[in-house]
């Protein structure tokens, strides 16, 4: 049996993306084509298959039983096809065509150079993005990002997503150097405002979750969303905060201007992972995770431990 001419991988990609983004407008924006082109592609696919895929009376678009069946099979078929293309290109010593990798700003400072230096030849066109982790997760789900290097666990239960562990990044307390109080969040909160890391970030959410477990209700006086804002505010005596060793590694020259202390209780960490889609990009995600771990352990953390030798104990205790 010959497949219908309308049934091709491009049409399947358009269909799957329309389902995952919830509509033809969003799919067209992602594909950088007109909504009319998306609609026509799906109409031709329906004509070729002989079944209606979307219930167009619903808003947002809903799938018909035939549409649900096709979506389940098309996602697996497309993943297999992408893997095949990657493997054929590797076998012919050809790089992967394009990869977009996204990570938090502090991780981007530490890992962008080593990533491009060591793995650059594996990919013909790299796009490296840094920014708010929750936005990056949405971009990943919308296929605008191929690899995530993240400390957020939001995608851990997402079907079809693979997580490659890098390491655990312990959190620590940071105070102005002039602060002479006890190295304790409760004592600090009595004399200084808390510099809160934005809840739009995975790190901010992780810190806030721990504060809730510690039953600490801290007024939202100052909120920032990048590490330089956070650490500079503390160094200037504006407030105190909770940060991580990797954030300090991204700005090692600022450590002498801070009082950095371990949490006296309820110690916690974020797990840094490389997140990819199952069956795509060959072993690039695993290699990226291995490279990230090696770089952090051999190049980034020594800059912190040289100034905070006691922090070595945290790396093995969380």
Give the topology, please.
Elements: H1 9-21, H2 24-31, H3 35-49, E1 54-55, E2 62-63, H4 65-91, E3 96-103, H5 105-119, E4 123-130, H6 133-141, E5 147-150, E6 161-175, H7 185-191, E7 195-197, H8 202-213, E8 222-224, H9 227-235, E9 241-244, H10 245-250, E10 259-261, E11 269-277, H11 284-305, H12 312-315
Parallel strand pairs: 3-4, 3-5, 7-8
Antiparallel strand pairs: 1-2, 5-11, 6-9, 6-10, 6-11
What is the alpha-carbon Rg in Å? 23 Å
- Structural class of the helix and strand makeup? alpha/beta
The CATH class of the largest domain turns out to be Alpha Beta
Could you give a short account of the major beta sheet? 7 strands, mixed
N-to-C order of helices and strands? HHHEEHEHEHEEHEHEHEHEEHH
| Shape-level CATH architecture of the largest domain | 3-Layer(aba) Sandwich
**What percent of the residues sit in helical stretches (DSSP H or I)?**
40-55%
Q: What number is the mean pLDDT? A: 88
Overall number of structural domains? 3
